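Project outcomes to date are best conveyed with an example. Our students and postdoctoral researchers have been running inverse folding experiments weekly, and each run begins with a structure described purely in tokens. The record below, which covers 295 residues, was selected by the lab manager from last quarter's runs and is presented without edits.
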């Protein structure tokens, strides 16, 4: 990735007593021990899930703002930028893991198949009060207790609890209308591969026809896949990824707008500025000035 100004937190930095591929803690202990500077924007190289059981605040994830309150749950993909602003009594449970920690154990499934991890276009937050799902809240507590167990089967039980948590979150995610109805597996696989291709190539390649060619499908079929999965056209997803990176660079770096446009594969600064304003509702210059003024 071209932007290297943000800290990228590595999973192996958290806890000498934890398995290298997995970490779990209460939120207050996590902040106290490892991560005091939560108000500073940062990234991770792992999948993160947190349930808040106490406190209030705000959570900004890739420029989307979510309120924090008891029952708020967040699921973050590797590479997403975020930061928190929390009341002093904020607490709950947090766990994170590598892709291999999950995928190597559940060999018939991938963590990316869950809607909250399958697409950056999908929301990262859920509201699940304890009264509506006491078992889900209990599972977070049991996961925390099990990770402190020294028994030989503790890692396997922890994975089983994580699977149950993800299944409950998947159900709630769909019930709250936060993802389109599921479609045959071919659509899901094509969409996942399409987003992987976008992530690797959005700077150098912006033509839908090339992505369709890489996927061995027609542009028309790729449009059906994209519209069915996330309700957006392929070109809008490619553009959205480029504009997200543009916002990150405008916010977190002091690079000139012209240099940012060039780094993102736009040779025409005027076109880049028009596209940014159309997508974000504000010009690159005003976006940069607004966020610098408010932070």
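After processing, the design step wrote out the following sequence:
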């Amino acid at each position: 990735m071209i932007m290297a100004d943000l800290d990228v937190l590595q999973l192996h930095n958290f806890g000498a007593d934890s398995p290298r591929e997995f970490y779990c803690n209460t939120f207050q202990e996590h902040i106290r021990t490892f991560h005091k500077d939560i108000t500073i924007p940062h990234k991770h190289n792992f999948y993160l899930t947190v349930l808040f059981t106490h406190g209030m605040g705000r959570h900004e994830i890739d420029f989307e703002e979510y309120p924090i309150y008891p029952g708020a749950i967040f699921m973050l993909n590797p590479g997403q930028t975020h930061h928190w602003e929390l009341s002093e009594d904020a607490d709950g449970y947090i766990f994170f893991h590598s892709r291999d920690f999950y995928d190597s154990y559940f060999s018939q499934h991938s963590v990316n198949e869950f809607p909250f991890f399958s697409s950056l276009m999908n929301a990262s937050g859920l509201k699940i009060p304890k009264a509506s799902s006491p078992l889900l809240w209990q599972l977070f507590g049991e996961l925390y207790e099990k990770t402190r167990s020294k028994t030989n089967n503790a890692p396997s039980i922890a994975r089983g609890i994580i699977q149950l948590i993800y299944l409950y979150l998947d159900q709630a995610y769909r019930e709250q209308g936060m993802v389109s109805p599921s479609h045959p597996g071919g659509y899901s696989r094509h969409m996942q591969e399409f987003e992987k291709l976008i992530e690797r190539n959005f700077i150098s390649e912006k033509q839908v026809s090339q992505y369709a060619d890489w996927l061995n499908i027609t542009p028309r079929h790729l449009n059906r896949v994209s519209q069915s999965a996330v309700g957006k056209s392929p070109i809008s997803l490619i553009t959205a990824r480029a504009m997200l990176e543009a916002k990150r660079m405008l916010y977190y770096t002091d690079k000139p707008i012209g240099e940012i446009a060039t780094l993102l594969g736009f040779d025409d600064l005027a076109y880049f500025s028009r596209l940014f304003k159309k997508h974000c509702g504000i010009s690159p210059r005003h976006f940069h000035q607004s966020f610098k003024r408010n932070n």
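The chain has two domains: 7-175, 185-294. The domain at 7-175 is CATH 2.60.120.280 (Jelly Rolls). The training component of this project remains on track.
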